Amino acid sequence: MYRDHNCGELNITNVGQNVTIAGWIQKIRNLGAMQFIDLHDEHGTTQIVISDNEEVKKQAENLTTQCVISVQGVVVERSNKNNKIPTGEIEIDAKEIKILGKCKNVLPFEVNSETNGEVREDLRLEYRFLDLRNDKIHKNILLRSKIMKTLRRRMDELGFTEIQTPILANSSPEGARDYLVPSRLHPGEFYALPQAPQQFKQLLMVSGFDKYYQIAPCFRDEDPRADRAPGEFYQLDFEMSFAEQEDVFKVLEDVITTVFKEHTNWEVEDGPFLRIPYREAMEKYGIDKPDLRNPLIIQDVTEVFKGSEFNAFKDKIVKAIVIPNGNEQGRKFFDNMTDFAKEEAGASGLAWFKVDEQEQISGGIAKFITEDMYMKMKNEFDLQKNGAIVFVADEKLEKVQKMAGLIRIELGKKLDILQKNIYKFCLIVDFPMYELSDEEKIDFNHNPFSMPQGGLEALNTLDPLEILAYQYDVVCNGYEMASGAVRNHDPELMIKAFEIAGYTEKEVESRFGALYNAFQYGTPPHAGAALGLDRMVMLISDAENIREVIAFPKNKKARDLLMKAPSEVTEEQLKDVHIKVDIDK
């Protein structure tokens, strides 16, 4: 037996007992006559003392930090107690030390929570097995496991059935590039790793399963971000037969609040979540994933500047953000915000002015603000004494909304006005069914398998860009955390919806043959959603980026530095799958 206790469970009640523990050496302190070792595992840390036992001193001669050892000894009461750890009242007087796993004398970086953030991330990922020994990262992975157990438990309690769907699947327009897998048995043909189990879970509804779920791996060839891992991610995927939008909302609100309340000590808002139509979200927050901890709201002041002498706003849409107590900010604050607006938000500039206690305005564009304009802003847009207001303008509504949204987020950070230690949720609803692509073509805005509001009549009579869909997102503290839709289960509707996006009926039958065919044989109305597991763990653990909650993540360039992937393969491997590589080197 390597151990009969872990490094976090011994306490004052164990004094006098002969025990064996094992773990990694976190720290060695040699005081001459005595030597102390902090022995650590995922359960905690226990102090080992080596005093007058010459044989044990000899056994400890070649020890280094991060060696794995087992220690047999007697639990004794510590004279200098450490109240910061559960084992701080005791230590083990070592009688025997065995080295179970040697460690190199020179580590690529020190393994502890204090210096972790200072180490270059690529180095941490190259030695991820060491990085995962860091308490903070290690606890994130353990938290992830606990959250997954809670998700499964709650979904089971709600009557859902866990079913696994294939990993080798077909290509599907989910909004990102596919990862393709060449077939050895079928030359020139490819599988695609699923961007989501979308078609399979809908087929399960056609098959008569009432409620499906799985914690599903998904694969999308997307550029990484702080809140999005490259390549692969996991989501709680679920679908319900005979369900409408409200049924899905109830499940989302139940599961999300259950998980958050069990795994955080922050305040968690109860359901029902605030519902915000997509267009309202873009108007008020400039983004479809608003952080509701930020009290600032974007307002349209275009009419205020009609006929104004301030030519920079002539014939433009003008958005404004009122800053309570903004008069307290100096010129440098507004200069810095102007630099941000230009460099990060894509604006040509940022206009502003301040109001003091006597309602005298100053700074920025104050000279262009007439008494009538000021009174409108005061009465209609809640510009108060000692406040300030910033403006951004552009000819295009979508552009000015996004610019104002980024400025709102930056103001929230710089002013430090976000509510602390709280999770605020909302449901973004009524997404547009379609959008214009970069090539100015009609494309799906969200999920192509969604039900359009108004059904076939809307598809036949409305401007595609005016059609709304039964699509929805759950947003938490500025992050999209879940996404879903009521599904389009009518073959005629499905063909028409894809036709508007440029797909012929033949293409729909070819690309989505299984789904299209299945819909001919009696399909119940169904709806569902997918909740991002990685992002949920990131939020609950308050991690800075999503890589901190994934055991073996890829770096910002989508490389696995530990396993050296992606990598070249042999010519023989390429021949097996009928592939020739043609790249310029």
Describe the structure.
- There is one protein chain.
- The protein is of the alpha+beta class.
- It folds into three domains: 12-101, OB fold (Dihydrolipoamide Acetyltransferase, E2P); 138-159 and 194-271 and 425-552, Bira Bifunctional Protein, Domain 2 (BirA Bifunctional Protein, domain 2); 294-418, Gyrase A, domain 2, CATH 3.30.1360.30.
- Helices cover 29% and strands 25% of the residues.
- The protein contains 17 helices and 24 strands.
- The strands form six sheets. It has an eight-stranded mixed beta sheet with strand order 6-9-10-24-23-22-19-12, with helices on both faces. A five-stranded mixed β-barrel has the order 1-2-3-5-4. A five-stranded antiparallel beta sheet has the order 13-14-17-15-16.
- Helix 8 (278-285) crosses helix 11 (397-415) and helix 12 (455-461) runs parallel beside helix 13 (491-500).
- The radius of gyration is 30 Å and the shape is globular.
- The mean pLDDT is 94.
Summarize model confidence as the mean pLDDT. 94
Task: Look at the helices and sheets and give the structural class.
Answer: alpha+beta
Q: Which architecture of the largest domain does the CATH hierarchy give at level 2?
A: 2-Layer Sandwich
CATH class of the largest domain: Alpha Beta
Low-confidence stretches: none
Strand and helix map with partners:
Elements: E1 18-30, E2 35-41, E3 44-50, H1 54-59, E4 68-77, E5 90-101, H2 113-116, H3 121-126, H4 128-131, H5 135-157, E6 161-162, E7 179-182, E8 190-193, H6 198-206, E9 211-220, E10 231-241, H7 245-263, E11 267-268, E12 274-277, H8 278-285, E13 298-300, E14 317-323, H9 331-343, E15 351-355, E16 361-362, H10 371-381, E17 388-394, H11 397-415, E18 422-423, E19 425-429, E20 434-436, E21 442-444, H12 455-461, E22 471-476, E23 479-486, H13 491-500, H14 505-511, H15 513-518, E24 526-532, H16 533-541, H17 571-576
